[in-house]
């Protein structure tokens, strides 16, 4: 009976979605739970008190190390003392370049409150990112609301983000709009058979299925194929009287 | 209370004996205190508490005073930056779960296993494990309150559980017993913070107090069972070499966390020598303390002398 209880509890506990951000070099969650003896030596050797051992009720396997970027982010020490401290290999010593750590993935999770998405120039997450301009870039897009401004949207790139949590820590909102999530929650996965035509085309140095006929698009005959952007001054055919918009609207402050 | 006081003329010897039995059950060792004095009647208990609290203190000096003598906890630790120690039972589960630990952990586990294999595995239970203080307190209170009954599981439960935890580790691919282990929860809780883990420790206390006398450490704990296996060739052993002086007061049986180990040595049941060789004996020395006749003493497993 007891063993059954323990087994069920264990199965239930490990079935919970892993929301914990593990220290750098941590094995994949399932292997981590097999290797981590919950001794806390990584916690002790973390110079910034970033890491802590979970307590029963934290919703993280009891006694295992994790950190919350919003509270204390990982400072990405060059010598990675937490990994060196781990006696069992739950933190993999193959990781010697902290830039290659993948603790989690930052996700700009709330575009409704992010100040940059509102058209402001907050940029704080971008500025604090230790891998600035690689892990987070500012992508210039047109601001459709004002129709005359740009928006610089913080954009995370998974191939460079270490999941240190600096962005989440420094987000100026009362609740961070950018959050570091475990990869399992942050990322989708393409089907094995999925191929991107343009990637394959570039790799092969040309189309794999021969040249394609490009059907003309009415009114856009002079444009490059696929370019359907609407230029200033373009008036869509309509019966209703049209007021010029954007820079030609005649609006004055 | 005492029916004998209503009939002072003729006290039936049987009831007097049962009355003294009852006092043995609530306050064993009273005789030893009278004969040897309080300090000598608690010598091994005090030494044991000193060992348990001293080892705990070594772990606590770091977080309390920044004096890092020992880092980590009983699961794995680093002493003075050089000596790695790891719980071999955890390593066994980790390996069963399919992980090959780094050499630090293997070395640490080897040192711990060798130490206990040589001196006696269950020294861990009585001299190191912090849960011992919890279950000793439960046993003490149970005696004082005269709580009887409950259902004690078979003493082999722990060995079944030991096997099951290793099997469960292999099946689930995680260190199975750590999901519930009150030993590491208590020790880690004291050093790193409890969360709700105190609930697990409290349930062990209540289980021992209300449901099963010496239930946890003596019947259920698979960690104790693991160290019990390492106890098979223990060098340090208790001998009842002055068993001829035994007056059957039963004090040793009342305090012993594994009472079944005493009989073969004390009463020469299925063995001639007075040495307690049962692997369940934790060498806690409490029987030595409470014996007014000094029947017991600590010795080595090779000392089969009788006096």
Automatic annotation (TrEMBL), chain B:
Start and end of every 4Fe-4S ferredoxin-type domain? Answer: 236-267, 273-301
Q: Fetch the Gene3D superfamilies from UniProt.
A: 3.30.70.20
State where composition is biased (Low complexity): 8-23
Q: Name one Pfam family in it.
A: Fer4_7
Organism domain of life: Bacteria
Q: Where is this region: Disordered?
A: 1-23
Q: Where are the transmembrane segments?
A: 50-70, 111-135, 156-177, 189-210
| SUPFAM superfamilies, per database record | 4Fe-4S ferredoxins
Key words, A-Z: 4Fe-4S, Electron transport, Iron, Iron-sulfur, Membrane, Metal-binding, Repeat, Transmembrane, Transmembrane helix, Transport
Q: Cross-referenced NCBIfam families, in alphabetical order?
A: napH, PRK09477.1
Q: What is this protein called?
A: Quinol dehydrogenase ferredoxin subunit NapH
Give the organism the record lists.
Answer: Denitromonas halophila
């Amino acid at each position: 009976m007891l063993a059954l209880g323990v087994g069920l509890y264990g199965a239930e506990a490990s079935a919970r979605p892993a929301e914990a951000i593990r220290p750098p070099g941590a094995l994949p969650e399932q292997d981590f739970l097999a290797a981590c003896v919950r001794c806390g030596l990584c916690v002790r050797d973390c110079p910034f008190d970033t890491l802590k051992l979970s307590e029963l009720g934290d919703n993280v396997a009891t006694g295992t190390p994790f950190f919350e970027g919003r509270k204390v982010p990982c400072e990405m020490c060059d010598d990675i003392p937490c990994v060196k401290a781990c006696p069992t290999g739950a933190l993999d010593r193959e990781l010697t370049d902290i830039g290659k750590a993948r603790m989690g993935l930052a996700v700009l999770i709330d575009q409704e409150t992010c100040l940059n998405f509102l058209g402001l120039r907050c940029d704080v997450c971008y500025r604090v990112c230790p891998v600035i301009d690689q892990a987070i870039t500012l992508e210039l897009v047109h601001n459709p609301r004002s129709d005359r401004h740009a928006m610089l949207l913080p954009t995370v790139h998974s191939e460079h983000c270490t999941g240190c949590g600096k962005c989440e820590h420094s987000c100026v909102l009362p609740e961070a709009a950018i959050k570091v999530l475990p990869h399992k929650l942050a990322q989708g996965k393409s089907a094995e058979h999925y191929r991107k035509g343009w990637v394959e085309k570039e790799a092969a140095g040309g189309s794999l299925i021969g040249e394609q006929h490009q059907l003309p698009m009415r009114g856009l005959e002079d444009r490059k194929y696929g370019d359907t952007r609407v230029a200033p001054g373009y008036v869509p055919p309509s019966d209703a009287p049209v007021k010029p918009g954007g820079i030609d609207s005649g609006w004055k402050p | 209370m005492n029916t004998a006081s209503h009939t002072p003329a003729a006290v039936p010897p049987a009831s007097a004996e049962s009355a003294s039995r009852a006092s043995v059950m609530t306050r064993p060792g009273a005789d030893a205190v009278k004969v040897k004095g309080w300090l000598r009647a608690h010598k091994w208990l005090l030494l044991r508490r000193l060992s348990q609290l001293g080892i705990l203190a070594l772990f606590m000096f770091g977080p309390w005073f920044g004096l890092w003598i020992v880092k980590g906890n009983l699961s794995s630790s680093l002493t003075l930056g050089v000596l790695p120690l790891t719980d071999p039972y955890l390593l066994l589960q980790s390996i069963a779960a399919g992980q090959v630990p780094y050499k630090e952990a293997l070395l640490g586990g080897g040192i711990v296993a060798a130490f206990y294999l040589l001196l006696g595995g269950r020294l861990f239970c009585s001299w190191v494990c912090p849960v011992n203080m919890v279950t000793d307190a439960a046993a003490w209170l149970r005696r004082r309150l005269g709580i009887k009954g409950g259902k004690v599981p078979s003493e082999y439960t722990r060995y079944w559980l030991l096997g099951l935890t290793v099997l469960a580790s292999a099946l689930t691919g995680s260190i199975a017993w750590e999901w519930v282990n009150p030993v590491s929860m208590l020790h880690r809780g004291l050093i790193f913070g409890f969360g709700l883990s105190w609930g697990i420790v409290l349930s062990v206390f209540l289980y021992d107090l209300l449901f099963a006398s010496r239930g946890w450490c003596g019947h259920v704990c698979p960690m104790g069972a693991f160290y019990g296996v390492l106890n098979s060739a223990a060098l340090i052993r208790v001998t009842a070499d002055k068993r001829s002086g035994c007056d059957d007061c039963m004090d040793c049986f009342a305090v012993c966390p594994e009472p079944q180990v005493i009989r073969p040595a004390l009463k020469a049941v299925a063995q001639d020598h007075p040495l307690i060789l049962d692997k369940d004996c934790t060498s806690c020395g409490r029987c030595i303390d409470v014996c007014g006749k000094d029947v017991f003493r600590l010795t080595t497993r090779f000392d089969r002398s009788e006096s």
